[in-house]
Design goal:
By secondary structure, the chain is of the alpha/beta class. It contains 17 helices and 14 strands. Uridine-5'-diphosphate-glucuronic acid binds next to helix 9.
């Protein structure tokens, strides 16, 4: 059997499908790659001439798109045609937590994966290698295999065959292109050596051989969930310690630096922040919890669930601190929120800590002005599920009476009459704010709440502004045993 791949179809043009296939098209100019999606608006955005309108903001992505789009990389809604012509199909669709039915709130909703598998079963021709790129619960490959197997036996069609592999994606948003170009590892799980070699040959075009790992398919699926669970666990761990720092006079930056020097612990992923966000950590841990519960491993389930509980508590804690420092009430007080994305260098807001924190502040009556360099007003509205102040109708008494409010700021210059500035995303531009100029506009005693430890504390203090920095107990004069 010829194992060289000439055409690839990727189902799903999202945060994974788009960047992953862009890098693959760059490194494999002889392979034709079709990225397909049911969402026409998203596909149109991928095909936009104006590169600032691509549906995803990722440093380095535009440069690749310029080189490969409409050469060997095509974005379209032509699902049938692209599957028909593909030797290899990547399933890269969304797998959110189920909201209804069995396992609701924990298990992944696999309806989009199943639909993709059925489409492959329906349209593919000849031999097709099907690859799970989405993050999936352990043993999902079995479901895909069953669907494809029934297609193999369909006597009304020409003979077809399929092999299923797991090839989870480890990119992080904001650094996706670099992560894809220089991955720590590429994991290929399967039980068919020929198909595994075929996929590894693609990656070998740019990934050193010793970084390409072969495992069985279930280990590969579980390794992806475990990886995310371990990373999230580190953040909950460091955030829990930040609260101890604040009451003891220790500084979380110094603690992180000290423990990170232990090569067994390592220095990465030890930044205390407003709590982890993103579309995957919570969903993947919940998935692991569901798996453990399903197999009766109650203690295991409880252990991983506590990582999420700590994250929820931590986000609530930040709101409480803001209220407390502003004399117990933030009703009608203008607070400038800097950053809404779940981390810097992305326009993604899924599960961003900013959503919970802003909702809580609005419920306390605050008058929020929200600025993020890459997140739009409509996205913030969709996340908060509250209209911005300028869109609230005069007779919308409920909204006007009960809650605080929010509005969008297009620029980083809306500090007039603000009582506080709250930094929630670590965008580079927030590091260089002219606090002296800002302080003249704010209402004294003004506050900066820095949940990402990015501001220059001397400059804030020199400007006569009070500073609260997450995990910094050295600022807190009230602390003594
Ligand atoms: P996404 O929501 O951005 O993109 C998924 C896309 O799939 C959507 O555009 C949707 O319209 C499309 N889609 C769904 N069903 C389809 C179908 N039947 N046919 C064609 N298109 C269809 O999701 P994402 O962030 O790209 O994540 C995809 C998967 O990758 C998830 O399982 C996620 O857990 C995993 N993952 C995500 C990241 C990340 O950083 N976002 C990183 C690693 C892994
Ligand atoms: C994460 C993993 O890092 C990727 O390997 C994985 O592929 C991806 O999930 C996925 O499966 O979706 P991502 O969520 O894009 O990537 O971004 P991270 O850099 O992991 O950040 C997640 C959250 O943790 C962010 O809110 C970030 O601000 C927070 N974080 C991260 C901290 O609070 N402190 C840190 O030290 C690191």
């Amino acid at each position: 059997m010829d194992i060289s791949i000439k055409q690839i179809c990727c189902i799903g043009a999202g945060y994974v499908g788009g960047p992953t296939m862009s890098v693959m098209s760059l490194k494999c100019p002889d392979i034709l790659i079709n990225v397909v999606d049911v969402n026409k608006e998203r596909i149109d955005a991928w095909n936009s001439r104006d590169l600032s309108k691509l549906p995803i903001y990722e440093p380095g992505l535009q440069e690749i798109i310029v080189k490969t789009r409409n050469k060997n990389l095509f974005f379209s809604t032509k699902i049938k045609e692209s599957i028909e012509n593909a030797d290899m199909v990547f399933i890269s669709v969304n797998t959110p937590t189920k909201t209804k039915g069995l396992g609701a709130g924990k298990a992944s909703d696999l309806k989009w994966v199943e639909k993709s598998a059925r489409e492959v079963a329906r349209y593919s021709k000849g031999h097709t290698i099907v690859i799970e790129k989405s993050t999936l619960p352990v043993r999902t490959a079995e479901v895909i295999q069953k669907i494809l197997h029934s297609a193999e036996r369909d006597s009304t069609k020409e003979s077809r065959s399929f092999k299923v592999l797991s090839n989870p994606e480890f990119l992080a948003e904001g650094t996706a292109i670099n992560d894809l170009l220089n991955p720590d590892r590429v994991l290929i799980g399967g039980n068919n050596e020929e198909a595994m070699i075929s996929l590894s040959q693609i990656y070998k075009n740019w990934v050193p051989e010793d970084k390409i790992l072969f495992t069985n398919i279930w280990s590969s699926e579980l390794a992806k969930l475990t990886s995310n669970a371990f990373l999230a666990q580190r953040i909950s761990s460091i955030n829990s310690i930040s609260s101890i720092c604040e009451v003891t006079g220790a500084d979380i930056g110094e603690v992180s630096r000290s423990i990170g020097k232990d090569s067994r612990i390592g220095s990465k992923f030890l930044d205390s922040g407003p709590g982890f966000g993103g579309s995957c950590f919570k969903k993947d841990i919940l998935n692991l919890v569901y798996l453990a519960e399903y197999f009766g491993l109650k203690e295991v389930a409880k252990f991983w669930e506590s990582v999420i509980e700590m994250n929820n508590w931590h986000q609530k804690r930040i709101t409480e601190i803001v209220v407390k420092k502003l004399f117990g009430t933030i009703s009608n007080k203008k607070i400038v929120v800097l950053g809404f994305a779940f981390k810097a260098n992305t326009n993604d807001t899924r599960e961003s800590a900013a959503i919970t924190i802003c909702k809580n502040l609005i419920n306390e009556g605050a008058d929020l002005v929200i600025y993020d360099p890459k997140v739009s007003s409509s996205q913030i509205e969709a996340d908060l599920q509250i209209k911005p102040e300028n869109e609230i109708e005069k007779d919308d008494f409920d909204l006007k009476e009960k809650l605080g409010k929010w509005r969008f700021s297009k620029n980083l210059d809306n500090f007039d009459d603000a009582y506080a500035v709250l930094i929630l995303t670590e965008w580079e531009e927030f590091k260089n704010i002219n606090w002296m100029a800002v302080s003249k506009k704010m209402v004294p005693p003004a506050w900066v709440f820095d949940s990402r430890s990015i501001v220059n504390s001397h400059k804030v203090k020199e400007a006569g502004i009070n500073l609260w920095r997450l995990g910094d107990g050295t600022q807190n004069q009230e602390n003594s045993f």
